[in-house]
Amino acid sequence: MKLSLAIVALALAIPSATYAQDSTAVSKGEYPNTFSSGSANVSPFTNQSKRFNDWSISAGVGVPLLQSADLTSIKNGNGKNLFGYSAYVSIDKAITHAFGINLQYDRGETRQGWFNTKNAAPDASAVGARTQYDAISLLGDINFSNVLRRVDNHSPYRWALHGYAGIGTIAYRAYQKDGSNKQTLMTEIKPFQLGSLFFQAGTGLKFKVNRRIDIEGRLMYVVTGDDEFDGGGDAYSAINKRSEQVSDNFFNATLGLSVKLGKHESHLMWHDPLQEIYYKLDVLANKNQDIEVCKKGDADNDGVCDDWDRQLDTPAGARVDGAGVALDTDLDGVIDLYDKCVTVPGPVENNGCPVATTGPVVETETKLEGIEFDLNSDRILPSNTPILNNAVNYINSSTGSYNVIGATDTRGTDAYNQKLSERRANNVKNYLIKNGVQTGKLQAVGKGEKDLKYPECEPATKCPEWKNRANRRVYFEAK
């Protein structure tokens, strides 16, 4: 019976140990390692990219004490202080940092009654018993230290409190010795039968010696579900009538060793996700301090880095577009900073204002450049909104009407570019109307790639990207 249980346990353990190497990614030893509760590497959660060891083998020895029975191992019950022996071995699999499953084999012997069966009976009425048992069980393992770990606890840890509970099958032989000093086999239960099911639960305290080895002290409570486990004989014997309980239960105190399998630095059950989060936040904070904005600087202090500033000598105080070019709303050659008539074109000599005449000012063709678009896009860029808002003011102050003309660069087919230019023109027209321009003053026109600001950019590969970007534009033309 003992041999058969051991063979079954070994058969289940060998495949588990064989496939215990859980991944191909090896830790570089960076923070956090096993002693600081985690791993610094980040990878998708797949079998090929696991970051932790999650298999281990445990073994231990201990002392079982029959506590709830007709014959007990404890003096204040039906017996004296009698100590048996026990041993266990298990294959442990961590599912998460807080939960695992253990396949465990137990073997031991409890001693109960008024004397040790190895000794002679002290008197004719004394009864002693011993029970040899073998058991296989499946235990759930909860890591309470990770479940209950405080959010503000930044320190690493090497102690962990675990809770265990599970069910299994137990086989045993119960012997009794009375005043005649004759030892008798009272009950024998085979494994894997309905009556052989049992339950055990308890707690353990682990100490991490190093990345490979843990030491653990456990206290388990075993519920046999059997009134004959203590060696009292059948259920209606004189001994089994002394107490009303129908389950002979015992404590099992053990001291064990766990060996963690795998080639990673850390084991999953010692990993603390909170510690890893704190570490990553620290790394990000350090990286933010290292970010270098505007490597070439901003020589004219216009808020546009020199890396993409097209006008590196913008006068102080001038408003600029997204490319760092000073705004000239009426396109008369005088930037708005110096233009005394921002919305009406005029010569430079007259500070951007029209020369006085005897009649009303007649508007000539006026174009508003600089409303550019990303490649293959009709979305209005945030950098264009100041120019468009100026266009709203200009058109509203004018008595004329305007064509909103869209254009593209030379990439793409003619048909595609024509439709793209129409979408760009319509998007700008809708923006202006939405912001207060009368519908009747605007008409959207698409010219595709037939109206290049830089005609030499055909094909587009002949020009730098800023010229191609300038070709992707929308401008205004008085009718």
List keywords for this structure.
4-stranded mixed beta sheet, 13 strands, 6 helices, 8-stranded antiparallel barrel, 28% strand, 479 residues, rod-shaped, alpha+beta, 17% helix
Describe the structure.
With 479 residues, the chain is α+β, with helices and mostly antiparallel strands. 17% of the residues lie in helices and 28% in strands. The protein has six helices and 13 strands. Strand 11, helix 5 and strand 12 form a beta-alpha-beta unit. The longest helix has 21 residues. About 10% of the residues have low confidence.
Major beta sheet, strand line-up = 1-2-3-4-5-7-8-9
Main structural class: alpha+beta
Largest sheet: 8 strands, antiparallel, barrel
Strands, count: 13
Query: Which term fits the overall shape?
Result: rod-shaped
| SSE succession | HEEEEHEEEEEHEHEHEHE
Mean pLDDT across the residues is 81
- As a whole number of angstroms, the C-alpha radius of gyration is 43 Å
Distance between the termini: 104 Å
SS strand fraction: 25-35%
Query: Fraction of residues in helices?
Result: 10-25%
Low-pLDDT regions? 6-44, 357-367
How many DSSP H or I helices?
6
